[in-house]
Amino acid sequence: MADLDKYREWIRQLLTEYAQRVSSNNEIEAQTIFDGEQDHYQLIYIGWQNRHRVFGPVMHFDIKNGKIWIQWNGTEEDVGEQLVAMGVAKQDIVVGFHPPYIRQYTDYAVG
């Protein structure tokens, strides 16, 4: 059985750690957005780089029906495995950015 309070805390921890890794570029800000009531969690980058606007999600997680849905991962790291290392069961993780017919081939839940 999923411990949703632990899942929420681990997602917040993961996003906060990534936010702290932002390069030394002072013009880019990493913002974490935590909606604990609706269970939506994001890391976004916002700012300017070389005269170009930077704005967009880096990671987005939802908690739905007791499972963590990885809705977006704009990094090269396997955040699913990082969640597993924290204690999340693989059957409680859904790679939501994969189409449903592909999810059956991952090590994680289908939905």
Describe this structure in words.
With 111 residues, the protein is of the alpha+beta class. It has one domain: TATA-Binding Protein (2-Layer Sandwich). It contains 3 helices and 5 strands, in the order αββββαβα. It has a 5-stranded mixed beta sheet with strand order 1-2-3-4-5, covered by helices on one side. A hairpin with a 4-residue loop joins strand 1 and strand 2. It is globular.
List the helices and strands and how they pair.
Blueprint: H1 4-20, E1 28-35, E2 40-49, E3 52-64, E4 67-73, H2 79-86, E5 93-95, H3 100-103
How many helices?
Answer: 3
First-last Cα distance: 16 Å
What's the CATH topology label?
TATA-Binding Protein
What's the overall geometry? globular
Residues in helices, as a percent range: 25-40%
**Quick one: CATH class?**
Alpha Beta
Rg result = 15 Å
Any guess at the CATH architecture?
2-Layer Sandwich
Sheet-strand content, in percent, reads 35-45%
Mean pLDDT: 93
Query: Helix/strand-derived class?
Result: alpha+beta
The main pleated sheet reads as: 5 strands, mixed
Number of domains: 1
